[in-house]
């Protein structure tokens, strides 16, 4: 099975090169203006597209990916909410195990249902320890998954959970405040998790300024994810992309 994207992520971590991912929720994408947005992503050197969400009501994932393929060379990674969110035309899928929660359906149940389809899909499977962090409000993922996020100020719980995820064989750790987060995962928590696991660390939710992006990168995030923030403020894409590029230049 292909490891192209995972190998790239691992290589970037070794080089201390940070990456920017844009989360595209099919329910919030307007296909008639999508090409213009994709051009902006290419211009700002976005590294990855994450396509998906906790709850999807518009069946346009395949159409979105087709347009992305036509207009960019940016890899497409599925960010699934359940076993229905499998699109073989993507490059890879985050096989998310919600290790911060105690709902067996999101630890292994959905994965069992999806496994035969994933095996046939040809997608690169990125086994990911997914950790939901309190962000000041209930998010869609916490409601849908019926799980309690890790408290914002309990970095030690996050560390122990991430260590367990690494020991269980996950290849990536994802700290997520969720869509519409009031505030991002704290730099203190990011730093502690980063220092205690060797896996690449993805951080998303509440990153709505270049300053917050830089703080997450400095704390140890390898990939930062923006979504809801740029939907409200399109200029934020270029501002955060510039922050990532500036950070990479500073360590070059």
Radius of gyration: 17 Å
Helix/strand order:
HEHEHEEHEHHEHEHEHH
* CA distance, first residue to last residue: 32 Å
pLDDT < 50 runs, ≥5 residues: none
How many separate helices? 10
Shape: globular
**In terms of structural class, how would the helical and strand content be classed?**
alpha/beta
Biggest sheet: strand arrangement: 1-2-3-4-5-6-7-8
**Quaternary organisation:** single chain
Question: Taking all residues together, what is the mean pLDDT?
Answer: 95
Proportion of beta-strand residues: 15-25%
Largest sheet: 8 strands, parallel, barrel
* Beta-strand segment tally: 8
Into which percent range does the helicity of residues fall?
A: 40-55%
Question: How would you describe this protein?
Answer:
It contains ten helices and eight strands. Helix 6 runs parallel beside helix 7, helix 7 runs parallel beside helix 8 and helix 8 runs parallel beside helix 10. An eight-stranded parallel barrel has the order 1-2-3-4-5-6-7-8, surrounded by seven helices. It is an alpha/beta fold and 252 residues long. Strand 1, helix 2 and strand 2 form a beta-alpha-beta unit. The model has no long low-confidence stretch (mean pLDDT 95).
Produce a short descriptive summary:
The chain has 252 residues and is an alpha/beta fold.
List the helices and strands and how they pair.
Layout: H1 4-14, E1 19-24, H2 31-43, E2 48-52, H3 61-71, E3 76-79, E4 92-98, H4 104-121, E5 124-132, H5 140-145, H6 155-167, E6 172-176, H7 187-196, E7 201-204, H8 210-219, E8 223-226, H9 228-232, H10 236-251
Parallel strand pairs: 1-2, 1-8, 2-3, 3-4, 4-5, 5-6, 6-7, 7-8
């Amino acid at each position: 099975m292909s490891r192209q994207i995972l190998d790239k992520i691992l290589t970037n971590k070794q080089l201390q090169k940070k990456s920017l991912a844009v989360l595209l929720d099919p329910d919030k994408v307007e296909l008639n203006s999508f090409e213009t947005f994709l051009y902006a992503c290419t211009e700002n050197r976005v590294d990855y597209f994450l396509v998906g969400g906790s709850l999807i009501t518009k069946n346009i994932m395949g159409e979105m990916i087709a347009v992305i393929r036509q207009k960019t060379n940016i890899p497409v990674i599925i960010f699934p909410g359940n076993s229905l969110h499998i699109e073989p035309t993507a490059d890879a899928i985050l096989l998310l195990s919600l290790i911060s929660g105690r709902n067996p359906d999101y630890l292994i149940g959905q994965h069992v249902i999806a496994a035969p389809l994933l095996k046939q899909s040809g997608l690169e499977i990125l086994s990911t320890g997914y950790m939901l962090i309190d962000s000041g409000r209930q998010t869609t993922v916490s409601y849908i998954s019926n799980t309690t996020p890790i408290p914002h100020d309990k970095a030690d719980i996050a560390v122990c959970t991430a260590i367990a995820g690494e020991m269980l064989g996950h290849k990536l750790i994802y700290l997520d405040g969720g869509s519409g987060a009031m505030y991002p995962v704290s730099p203190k928590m990011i730093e502690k998790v980063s220092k205690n696991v060797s896996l690449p660390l993805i951080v998303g939710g509440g990153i709505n300024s270049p300053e917050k992006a830089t703080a997450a990168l400095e704390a140890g995030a390898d990939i930062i994810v923006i979504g809801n923030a740029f939907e409200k403020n399109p200029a934020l894409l270029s501002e955060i992309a510039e922050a990532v590029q500036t950070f990479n230049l500073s360590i070059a």
